[in-house]
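INFO worker-7 received task bundle
INFO bundle size: 2
INFO processing item 0
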Amino acid sequence: MASASPAAGAKASPRSLSGLLPFIRPYRARIALAVVFLVMAAVATLVFPVALRGLIDGGLTSGDKGMQLVALRSHFLELFAVAVALGLFSAARFYMVSWLGERVTADLRNAVYAHVLEQSPEFFETTQTGEVLSRLTTDTTLVQTVVGSQLSLGLRNTVMGLGALAMLVWTNPYVMTQVLLIIVLVVLPTMWFGRRVRRLSRASQDRVADSSAIAAEVLNAIPVVQSYAAESREAARFDGATENAFKTGVRRTRARAVLVAFIIIANAALLLWGLYQGTQAVLAGKISAGHLGETIVYVIILAGAVAVLGEVYGDLLRAAGATERLMELLESRSPVTSPERPVPLRAAQGGSAVAFEAVTFHYPSRPATAALKDFSLQVAPGETVALVGPSGAGKSTVFQLLLRFYDPGKGRVVLDGVSTREVALQDLRGRIALVPQDAVIFSSSAMENIRYGRPGASDAEVIAAAKAAFADDFISDLPAGYGTFLGERGVRLSGGQRQRIAIARAMLKNPPLLLLDEATSALDAESERMVQAALQSAMRDRTTLVIAHRLATVQQADRIVVLDHGRIVEQGTHESLVTANGMYARLAALQFMD
C-alpha cells in the first residue's frame, strides 16, 4: 500500500518555495536579464495610458484639420511604438523565464533522483517507489509551471500593479484613496481562501501519489496478479485511489472556483467604482476626457494585476506544496554514508578477508527482533564459506551488512582489516560482486546488461564473461545476439538465463569478494552443473560467501556455517557437520532422504 508522506498534514506556504533557491541561484545572470525584460515590458504597459491621454487630449481637440491629422498620426505612431516595445520585451521575458523553468526543473529532478539512489534500504521500507515517481513527475511539473511562467507573471503584474497604483496616486489621489480601500477588501478574503486551497492542494498531490504507488507496485508484479486472476481486484483498488484523488481535486477546484468568482466580482466593482468617480470628475470639469481615459486604463491595469495575482497565488500555493514534498526527499538523510576521511583499503591478494565481530543488528522496521545476535565470523582470503539455515536465520542479513546497506547496532564488520564504517562506500562495494537470488535484468541489450558489472569493459571481455557463465550459447541464439533488447526486467528470458547473465555480470566485475545468494536456484539440473563449474572457476583466488538452501550446492565449500535465529549454531565441513548430527545433519537428511 502507498504510504503517506511524513508531512502530509503540514501546511505549505509560499515560503516553502525558498527551497528552490539553491537550484535558481546558479542562473543569476539569466534571472537578472529576465527581470530587466520584465520591468521594461511593465514600463511599456504603464506608458500606454499616457500615450492614450495624449491622443485623446491632443489629437482629438478641435482646431485646424491639417494640424489635427498630423497630431493624430504622431500619437498613433507613439502608441504603435509602445506596442512594439511591449511585444519585444514580453517575448524576451517569456523566453528567458521559460528557459529558466525548464532548466531548474531538470536540475531539481536530477538532484532528487540522484539523492534517492543514495538512500539506504531503510528509506524504501517506508517510502514506496510509486510515491517517489509521483514526486519526480507531478510535483516537478508543478514547480516548472511556477518557475517557468507563474512566478514571472506574478512579478510582472506586481510591478504593473504597483506602477498603476503610483500613477493613480499621482494623477488622481482622491479616486485612488477609495480604490485602495476596495483593494484591501479584495486581498483579505483572498488570503483566507488561499489557505484552504493550499491545504487541499497538498492533500490532492498526496492522493495522486497514492494511486501512482499502487500502479507501480502492481505493474511490477503483473505475472503474479494475472496468475491469481486479480486484475479486477487491482483495478478496483486503483479505481478507489483515483476516486479519492478525484474527490480531493474537486474540493480543491471548488475552493479555487469560489476564489476566482470573488476576485472577478471584486475587480469589476473596483473598475466600475473608478469609472464612476472619473465620470463624475469629468462632468464637474475637474479633469479632461484624456485624463479620464488614462485613469480608466490604469484602474483596468490595477484590477487586472490584482486578479492575476490572485490566480498566481493559488498556483504558488500548489507549487509550494509540491516543493515541500520534493524538499522532504532532498532533506532525508541516509543513516549509511561515506566517512568524511575514508580509510583506503589495501590491495587484496587472493581474495578479501572478512570479519564480523560480535555483531548485533535489528532491522529498523523490526526493532523488537534481532536479525543477528552477537554474531562473530572470520573468513580468510580465498576461503569459500557457505551460510545455511532455515528462513529468517540471518543469512541475507550478513550480505546486507557486508555491502553496508545497513550498519550494525553493536559490533563491527571488517573488510581487509578496516571497519566498513571507515571505508568509502564506492571503494567498499567496488570490492564486492553480488549475484542475487532474483536476478535483475535492465531494459537494455544483453551486452549492456553484462557490462553493467564493469562499464569500461570491452566487447571481448563481456563475451568472455558470458562464456565463463555458460551464457554465450543462448545469447548468441537471440535474434540480434548480444545486441538483443531483453525487455523490462528481462521478460524475454527464462529464469535460468537471467541468472546466468547476472553471474556473467559478477564475473566481469572480477572482485576479491563474491557473494552468491542462491545463485543457482533458478537453473535446471544441466544448467546448474555448467554454472557450478563456472562458479568454481570464478571462486579461485577470491573469497566467496554462498547462501544456499539446496545443500547439494555447498558440499564442496571450505566451511559451512549454520545459522539459526541470528546466531551461529554450527560450523565445519559437510562431512563433519553430518557426523555431528546437529541442525545441519537434520537439514541434510530432509534433502537427501531420497
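INFO item 0 finished
INFO processing item 1
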Amino acid sequence: MYILGISCFYHDSSVALLKDGKIIAAAEEERFTRKKHDTGFPINAINFCLNYENIKIKDIDYIGFYEKPFLKFERILSQHLNNFPRSLRMFVKSMPNLINEKIRISKIIRKKLKYKKEILYIDHHLAHAASSYLVSPFKKSAILTIDGVGEWATTALGYGKENKIFIEEEIRFPHSLGLLYTAITTYLGFKANNDEYKVMGLAPYGKPIYFEKLKEKLIKLEKDGSYKLNMDYFAYNYKEQMFSEKFIEEFGTSRKKESDITQFHKDMAASLQKLYEHILFMILNYLYKKYKLKNLCISGGCGLNSVANGKILKNTSFENIYIQPASGDGGTSIGVVSYIYNSILNNKRNFVMDSAYLGPEYNDDEIKNFLNKEEIKYSKFPNEERLLDQVSKLIYNNNVIGWFQGRMEFGPRALGNRSILSNPCNPNMQDILNLKVKHREKFRPFAPVICEEDVNKYFDGDKKLQMPSYYMLMVYPIKEEKRKLIPAVTHVDGSGRLQVLNKKYNELYWRLIKQFGKLSKVPILINTSFNIRGEPIVCSPKEAYKCMMGTGIDYLVLGNYLIKRDDNPKHMWDSEKYAKD
C-alpha cells in the first residue's frame, strides 16, 4: 500500500511517501525550486517520491492533506469579520490565495496529478501530533503540539496509545504561543516564520530583564499552563504587522531589518526565550500530572526551539522525549500518511523514524558525468580509507569542507549528508564561517557533531541524551573544562546545539569524526547546513558546486570525488548559466 502526504500553500511545502507503514521518501519543495520556505504546490517533491520508488500516481492508494481547508476558511473569515473594518485590507489581500489554493486543493491535486482515488484531509494539529507520536519508539506517550495556528488550534494536548491519538484539550486562535514568539521576532527586526531561531541564538547575549514585564503585559497564565494573550499588544489578527502600536508605546520603536543589534534587542530576546520556556514547562508539568506518562512527543514549529528542548527533562517529570526532525509544517506530510495508515485504516505501527535521510541521492556515475560535463577539475578517492584520511587532514588544517553524501536530509537541519564541516578547535572558525561562507550575522552559533559514545565526555546532558539530539534539536551545556578545546562551537553561555551520531545511521560520517579525533584528540566537528544565507540546503551536485564557488568553502567532497575551489576558474560561478539559476 502506498500513501502520499502533501503539505502546501502556507510555508515549507513538503511531500512524504509511505509504503506498507514505512516512510520511504520525503522532501521539501524548496530543495528543488531553490525558493526558501516554498509555499507552492510541491510537484517536484511529488515527482521525486514517485520516481524514487519507480511508481506512478495510479499506484497511490490514498493522498492525504495536512489540514482541513474549509475549517481553516471558517476561522479566517471569522477572524476578519470580528475585526472589521480594520481587517479589510488584509481580507482583500488574503482571500484570492485562500479561495484559489486552499479551498480548491482537491481540484488542484486531481488536475495536476491526474489522481482519481480518495483524498483525505487531516486536522492540522492532528497531523503534527501524528508526525511525532506515530513514528516515535513509544507505545504510549503524552503529546504536545505548539505552533502559530492550524485551522483554529494553536496548542493541543493529548496522548497516544498504540496506533491511536487522542487530542483532549486545545488553545485556539488568536491566543498563540507561536505567534507571540513570532511577533517579538519581527519586532526585533527579523523575518516571521523564518528567523525565530535567530532570536533563540541571540538570547544568550542578553539578560532576561524584561521577562516580568512581558509576562505581566502580554499574557494571562493559568496554573495549568493555559493562557490568553492580551490582544491589545498584537495586530496579526487584523493586519500583516504582527505587533500593535500599543506594543511600540510600551517597549519602544522596533528594530529595522539589518540595522545594528543593541543590548536592548539582546535583552528582549533573552526575556522572550525565558517567557517561552516558563510557559512551556507549565504546560508540560500539567500534561504529566494529567496522564502520568513517562514518554513525551512534541511537534509543531515550536518543537524546533532546541534551547527549551534541552531543559525539558530537568524541568519536568518526563523521562523520554521524541521530536521529529521536521517538527514544523514541513513534517506534517509525514504525520498525514502515518495517521491515515495507522489510525484511520487501523494498521499496527511497524516503523520508527530514527533517520532523516529520506531525500534524493546521486551515485558516483551521476556525479562524474556532472563534473566532466562542466569541465570541473577533480580527483577521485580510490577507497573510503583514503577519503577519510585526506578529508580529516584538510579539516584539521582549518580548511572548510562541503560534504555531500548519500540521501539528502528531511527537515531544516543538515545532519551529515548535505553539510559544511570544519575544525571546532580553531577559535577563529566561527567568524570565518559566518563571514566568508554563510554570509550571516556574527552572533550566530555553530553546531558540534559528536559520536554517541563520546558525548558524555564533553556535554552535561540529562540522564540519557535523547533521540532528538540525533536531529540537532537539543542544546546542552558543554562541560566547563572542555570549552576551551572547542571554542568555535561553544556558545556565549557555554552551551552547544549538538548532533549526536550513532554509527548505524551514518557510518561514513561517524568514521570521519573519529578520524579527525585521532589527529586533533577532539572527536568533534563543526556541522552547519550546506547553504548560504537566504537559500535552501543544497540538493544536487550542481548546487553544491555553485555554493562552493560563491563562498569561502575550500574543498567540496561529492561522493568519492574531491574538488578544490582554487583549482577551478572563478568564471564558472560568474558564467551566465550559473548566474541565472
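INFO item 1 finished
INFO post-check item 1: Residues 2-131+329-344 form a domain with the Nucleotidyltransferase; domain 5 fold (CATH 3.30.420.40).
INFO post-check item 1: The radius of gyration is 23 Å.
INFO worker-7 idle
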